[in-house]
Specification:
There is one protein chain. By secondary structure, the chain is of the alpha/beta class. It has a single domain, classed as Rossmann fold, CATH 3.40.50. Helix content is about 40%, strand content about 15%. The protein contains 8 helices and 10 strands. The strands form 2 sheets. Strands 1-2-4-3-7-8-9-10 form an 8-stranded mixed sheet, with helices on both faces. Helix 3 (about 110-125) packs across helix 8, helix 4 packs across helix 5 (about 185-195) and helix 6 crosses helix 7 (about 240-255). The termini are far apart.
Length: about 290
């Protein structure tokens, strides 16, 4: 039967009026999973939850950049010390965040510059070398430029002030830990009681041509029990060397590791063969203190 054009349009209009989202058929029932499928999904979900709660890997640690060199390596630098004459400092050439310190106390009729010149190569390039000046000798022409320490108490006070001035000038580049003590002649004589009273500050010490008589098995035992670690007695003359060899054996037996060395013919000095003996024993002296490793 023929359908008129108007009837067709009416039919099309009715069809277009039905909303597109309308659905007359009922929605299908949810799919029922088999028991083994449910268990498998549960395990997967549990694994995913565990993976999400696992700690993230630590980020790679980046080493901080090394500080620049201190500068003036190999030069002797005047260090202003409040209340005292300027000390002399030799700056290490090694590059590290903080450097250990050695102090060198000169003898009578001596100069701090000479101590720093001689002991710089002895201790190596790792640490600061501090050489306090003392007082000028009054019994010789000023042009000779010779110095002394007026007393053990005065030397100790000046050393304290010089160490403080070193820290003030170089800040955290100076390691505040234990200090290596080196004393020659008068510096050694005045230095022995100072070291014995401060074993934690000066646990490793070198006494050249002086200060040996202050050490006995009893004082060595007390020093070691309070934190003292090693002692080096060095000589430039035969009687001194013989006595030092005998003494260090007794001090070691008392609990303080000790060594002796030097020359029987060099004389009352700290350079030449005597300095060479200190240099040879220095690795033993600082053994166990990693700050002195190059």
């Amino acid at each position: 039967m023929a359908v008129s054009r108007s009837a067709k349009l009416v039919a099309l209009g009715l069809f277009a009026a039905i909303p597109a989202c309308t659905r007359s058929e009922p929605a299908p029932s949810p799919r029922t999973l088999a028991p083994e499928s449910s268990a498998r999904l549960a395990r997967s979900a549990s694994a995913a939850a565990g993976a999400s709660s696992a700690p993230l890997p630590e980020p790679a640690q980046v080493a901080p950049p090394m500080p620049p060199p201190l500068g003036n390596e190999g030069e002797l630098i005047a260090l202003e010390v409040p209340g005292f004459q300027p000390a002399v400092v030799s700056v290490p050439s090694a590059v590290r965040a903080a450097h250990p310190v050695a102090v060198a106390l000169h003898g009578n009729f001596d100069r701090p510059e000479w101590q720093c010149e001689v002991f710089r190569p002895v201790i190596g390039d790792t640490g600061f070398l501090l050489c306090p000046r003392g007082k000028p000798r009054r019994d010789v022409p000023k042009s000779l430029d010779r110095w002394e320490y007026q007393s053990g108490k005065a030397m100790a006070a000046e050393l304290d002030a010089a160490l403080a001035a070193l820290g003030q000038r170089y800040g955290d580049r100076v390691d505040p830990g234990p200090i290596v003590f080196i004393g020659f002649s008068l510096g050694a004589i005045y230095g022995a009681p100072l070291v014995q009273k401060n074993p934690e500050r000066f646990p490793r010490a070198v006494f050249v041509e002086g200060g040996h008589n202050a050490w006995t098995p009893a004082s060595a035992k007390k020093f070691a029990e309070a934190g003292g670690l090693r002692l080096l007695l060095v000589c430039g003359q035969a009687p001194c060397l013989t006595n030092a060899q005998r003494l260090t054996s007794k001090l070691t037996k008392a609990g303080l590791p000790s060594q002796s060395g030097g020359s029987a013919k060099a004389g009352h000095t700290y350079d030449g063969e005597v300095a060479a003996a200190v240099k040879a024993a220095f690795p033993w002296l600082v053994e166990g203190d990693g700050r002195w490793n190059d």
